[in-house]
Amino acid sequence: MSTTPVIEVENLNVTYRDFHAVRDLSFQVRSGELYALLGTNGAGKTSTLETIEGHRTPTSGTVRVFGRSPRDRAAVRPRMGIMLQESGFSPDLTVRESVALIGRLTRRDDDVDRVVDLVGLTHKAKTLVGQLSGGEKRRLDFATAVYGTPELIFLDEPTTGLDIQSRDDLWTAVDRLRENGSTVVLTTHYLEEAQQRADRIGLMHRGVLHREGTVAELTRTLPAVITFTLASPAPALPVQAVIGAGGSVRVDTFQLQKDLHLLLSWAQDHALELGDLSAGATRLDDVFRAIEA
Ligand SMILES: Nc1ncnc2c1ncn2[C@@H]1O[C@H](COP(=O)(O)OP(=O)(O)OP(=O)(O)O)[C@@H](O)[C@H]1O
């Protein structure tokens, strides 16, 4: 892995008239990593990505991609593949023609039929884009990112509208690209996808990078939760808990394994059943809820 960051954002500000959408944003994406830029609605992710992709000029601050300005399109653009939320292919072109067009526009080399196959559209290669289903269009959008196996790939809400099989296929294709050394920048509102796949996450809220780190780094600041119900009055619990109506019990803990063990032993010793027992590590959803709270 090279030590030069693929993307360097320093004190980026983006304003729309008097509205400050991105404030003094700084972060880096390293070569070969999958970086998820996540955030609340209106946080400034799209404004940031558009700047990195070279579609928008920063109001102030600097953005470097492969060490160059993203406005240096001739140098930077062929090295990046971008899957937008909507690509806007002409409805009158076939799938195959559209993929061939991607090749001409990106100036990357690839085999059109290989890409059509990679995105799972071989059986629709001669179908007009206007006749594709929503999920099939999304797969065609994915072709824009993967054509020519670019070094840097932007995936903006890539799995929205895809069924589970298509999602799995897309992530398998992304894994292959990463094995080839591609760097991936992902935005998604499906937090479990980011939780499973991102090396690092940047969490934006109201124009600033609220938190940044690996999933473990982001989640370890919040407690894990154990919940269960007790059917009848029970002896004193072995851990601190909040007991609610109907015998519901909630334990917030930074020592999930230890407290779970204590509770299970306690239940065993007193021949108690812990109804609807659920215990889970802190999830990214909880980190999000904590921001918005
Ligand atoms: N062209 C524009 N003119 C004025 N305000 C804009 C413009 N584009 C975006 N904004 C505002 O800037 C803020 C950030 O928008 P942006 O689209 O970057 O957020 P986002 O994080 O991508 O949001 P979402 O998750 O909802 O798509 C929002 O409040 C939005 O209303």
TrEMBL record:
Keyword Magnesium: no
Coiled coil: none
A single GO molecular function term of this UniProt record: ATP hydrolysis activity
InterPro entries listed in its UniProt record: AAA+_ATPase, ABC_transporter-like_ATP-bd, ABC_transporter-like_CS, ABC_transporter_ATP-binding, P-loop_NTPase
GO cellular component: plasma membrane
Lipid bilayer topology: Peripheral membrane protein
Entry annotated with the keyword Nucleotide-binding: yes
Localization per Swiss-Prot or TrEMBL: Cell membrane
Protein name: ABC-2 type transport system ATP-binding protein
